[in-house]
């Protein structure tokens, strides 16, 4: 894969880093790399916890956590997930189900198909784009 990473200077990324540094100090393990799969925010007992500022990207957040749970399961580690939205003071329990695992395979296949294309997909600007850490990657050279 191309190893595209979040823009380190992105305001949202910096805000997230501050949030992760200050939130949930009592987690047993914080910011753990899952070999080539990503970085989880922390582990608390039977739970993997992902910390988000708001639920603006709730569905994407859910799939991110399900992906981490699936990758851990492949390594023999069975956990449940907690998705915490700090500004909203709300936490949801996320459990990896068989149908989620099947859908994750479909999602990965679609991602790999996009990566294999000779040309990038047509750019589609959505309202959420302006707050995304990848904004500059997608919209470099574009005029607002």
UniProtKB/TrEMBL annotation:
Pfam families linked: Cas_Cas4
Cross-referenced Gene3D superfamilies: 3.90.320.10
Ranges for domain DUF83: 2-139
Alphabetized PANTHER family for the sequence: CRISPR-ASSOCIATED EXONUCLEASE CAS4
Protein name in UniProt: DUF83 domain-containing protein
Native species: Aneurinibacillus aneurinilyticus ATCC 12856
């Amino acid at each position: 894969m191309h190893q595209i990473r979040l823009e380190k200077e992105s305001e949202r990324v910096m805000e997230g880093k501050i949030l992760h540094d200050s939130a949930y100090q009592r987690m047993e393990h914080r910011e753990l790399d899952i070999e080539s799969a990503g970085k989880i925010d922390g582990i608390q007992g039977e739970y993997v916890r992902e910390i988000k500022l708001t639920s603006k990207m709730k569905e994407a957040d859910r799939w991110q956590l399900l992906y981490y749970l699936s990758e851990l399961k492949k390594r023999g580690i069975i956990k449940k997930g907690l998705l915490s939205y700090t500004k909203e003071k709300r936490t949801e329990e996320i459990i990896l189900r068989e149908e989620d695992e099947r859908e994750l395979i479909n999602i990965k296949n679609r991602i790999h198909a996009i990566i294999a294309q000779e040309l990038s997909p047509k750019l589609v600007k959505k309202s959420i784009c302006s707050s995304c850490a990848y904004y500059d990657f997608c919209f470099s050279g574009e005029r607002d």
